[in-house]
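queue> pop job 88
queue> type: inverse folding (structure -> sequence)
queue> payload:
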């Protein structure tokens, strides 16, 4: 498995912080690395359906890093395995990838790379409020004794529900943007749309998801 060469120790520190947040949202989660020329796209998925045929939401977090030279990679690994290797990176700033890849339903999803059009902005306060409301609803709706399959179904129902009045934005997108640390206080979140997809973007990262089903 090829290694990934980084430009700067600060890029590694930022990546560690990002993946640690993702692991808090899903302790068994995966990370997907995709290389486009000298840019590395790093995807995680705090919320996803177990099957591509499910009508539940799949929400992707994305950060990109500039690399010193071109890397052609499209690989998926356990968050814990990559975090262990990032902590042990030496002065050469080279990440040795694990020998075995992992798969989940969301790793087969490829969001559009072009055609994005701006459709407005959201305030950080509003996005945070949606995330907190969803967390409270999930907590109140799931008894401690409920089975994991039922609990997951409830979570997907809550996080798949549309929030706001003008966008078909699933609540899980707000949860991911907040939980991954992609917002600063009082920041405006830019919203983009293309071919049934929505993207929330800040200076810290992006959240991508399909539009929530219309209730009309």
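queue> result:
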């Amino acid at each position: 498995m090829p290694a990934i060469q980084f430009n700067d120790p600060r890029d590694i520190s930022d990546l560690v912080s990002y993946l640690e947040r993702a692991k808090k949202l899903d302790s068994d989660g995966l990370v997907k690395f995709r290389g486009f020329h000298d840019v590395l796209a790093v995807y995680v998925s705090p919320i996803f359906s177990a099957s591509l045929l499910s009508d539940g939401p799949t929400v992707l977090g994305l950060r990109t890093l500039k690399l010193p030279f071109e890397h052609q990679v499209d690989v998926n690994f356990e968050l814990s395995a990559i975090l262990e290797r990032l902590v042990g990176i030496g002065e050469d700033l080279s990440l040795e990838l694990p020998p075995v890849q992992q798969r989940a339903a969301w790793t087969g999803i490829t969001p559009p790379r072009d055609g994005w059009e701006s459709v407005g902005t959201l305030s950080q306060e509003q996005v945070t409020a949606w995330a907190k409301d969803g967390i409270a609803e999930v907590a109140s709706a799931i008894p401690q004794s409920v089975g994991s399959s039922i609990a997951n179904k409830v979570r997907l129902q809550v996080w798949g529900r549309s929030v706001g009045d003008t966008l078909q934005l699933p609540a899980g997108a707000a949860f991911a943007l907040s939980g991954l640390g992609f917002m600063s206080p009082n920041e405006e979140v830019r919203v983009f749309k293309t071919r049934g997809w929505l993207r929330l973007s800040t200076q810290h990262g992006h959240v991508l998801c399909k539009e929530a089903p219309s209730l009309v």
